[in-house]
Design goal:
Blueprint: H1 8-22, H2 25-35, H3 37-54, H4 56-59, H5 103-139, H6 141-155, H7 159-169, H8 174-182, H9 187-200, H10 204-211, H11 216-227, H12 229-252, H13 264-273, H14 280-306
Helix pairs in contact: 2-14, 3-5, 3-14, 5-6, 5-8, 5-9, 5-11, 5-12, 5-13, 5-14, 7-8, 10-11, 12-13, 12-14, 13-14
Length: 312
């Protein structure tokens, strides 16, 4: 019996069906994420701010910590208000601060510190929260009760005061700041992972892994954690802005980043002291910080929609 060749329309139908069957949920989620204009714009703007922060020394001839008392609180050339203290020249795109330091390069260096604190502290909270929540949810019973009651006790304490105590007792070091903030913002992450684990551990593939003799911690590592990545990714994009705000609050109080380093919180604190005489010292760091927080929130909303199981 001779096989008749398929016509072109049938071949295209088969190829499309094969392509649909071969696409994973992550590929579909990425496609939906890229269709979200707000999320894409947020990623582009965030990438630009990150690149500006990385290449800050190449974008300005002025060191970020160079003091020049001849150019104290000078406005940019394009500033509309003529009642400024002096003219800083066109090279100072954002003007200068109260010590004559170039504000443009200091805002970019502040982006380095603020983004580093946000990413590093979120990574610390991610490791602690995911491990803690997965273990509590998987083992259940008394283990779950004890572990989650401990989380409830920590929830009753205002975490920002815990960070302040850690910074005062030990030392106001930037690396300690990473650990201190990350060590107290993992509570919600643990609750989210625990809730997801409670639903996943009843699935058939978990029972199959148990029947195959896979160890409990191996099941958590190979099967539980990979299946909670979606909600965790969404919450990470919401944790980073919260950590940046927490760092800014501590720096605003003088307990965060110390000179000669700077962050957006430090710059905003300095800008409030001269808000009436040199408003640019407050506007630019606050604007950069607000745009960054909006970008993270837009990306988080996009990830939430892209990873929504109801849309799969």
């Amino acid at each position: 019996m001779n096989m008749q060749p398929l016509d072109t329309a049938a071949e295209e139908t088969i190829m499309r069906a094969a392509a649909v069957q071969g696409r994973s949920l992550w590929i579909d989620a990425r496609a939906r994420l890229l269709k979200n204009r707000a999320a894409v714009v947020g990623m582009v703007i965030l990438a630009i701010i990150t690149l500006l922060a990385i290449f800050a020394p190449l974008l300005s001839p002025y060191p970020f910590d160079k003091v020049n008392f001849n150019l104290v609180s000078c406005s940019p050339d394009w500033w509309p208000d003529k009642m400024v203290l002096c003219n800083a020249g066109g090279a100072h795109w954002f003007g200068t601060d109260a010590l004559g330091r170039d504000l443009f390069v200091r805002v970019l260096y502040g982006a380095r510190v603020s983004l580093a604190v946000g990413l590093a502290s979120t990574l610390v909270s991610l490791v602690i929260g995911v491990a803690y929540g997965a273990i509590a949810g998987f083992f259940g019973g008394r283990t779950d009760e004890l572990m989650m009651r401990f989380v409830d006790v920590l929830y009753s304490l205002p975490y920002i005061f815990l960070v302040i105590i850690l910074m005062v007792v030990f030392n106001r070091d930037i690396f300690l700041l990473f650990i201190a903030i990350g060590a107290v913002v993992w509570l919600t992450m643990a609750r989210i992972v625990r809730g997801q684990t409670l639903s996943i551990k009843q699935k058939e593939f978990i029972e199959a892994a148990r029947a195959a003799g896979v160890g409990q911690f191996a099941i958590i590592r190979r099967h539980i954690i990979p299946n909670v990545v979606g909600p965790v990714m969404v919450y990470v994009t919401l944790t980073i802005p919260a950590v940046i705000i927490a760092e800014s609050f501590l720096s605003f109080l003088g307990l965060g980043v110390q000179e000669p380093l700077t962050s957006w919180g430090v710059l905003i604190h300095d800008g409030t002291d001269q808000m009436e005489t040199a408003p640019w010292a407050l506007i630019f760091p606050a604007l950069f910080m607000a745009v960054t927080l909006f970008c993270f929130n837009f990306i988080g909303d996009g990830l939430r929609d892209a990873l929504d199981p109801k849309d799969r």
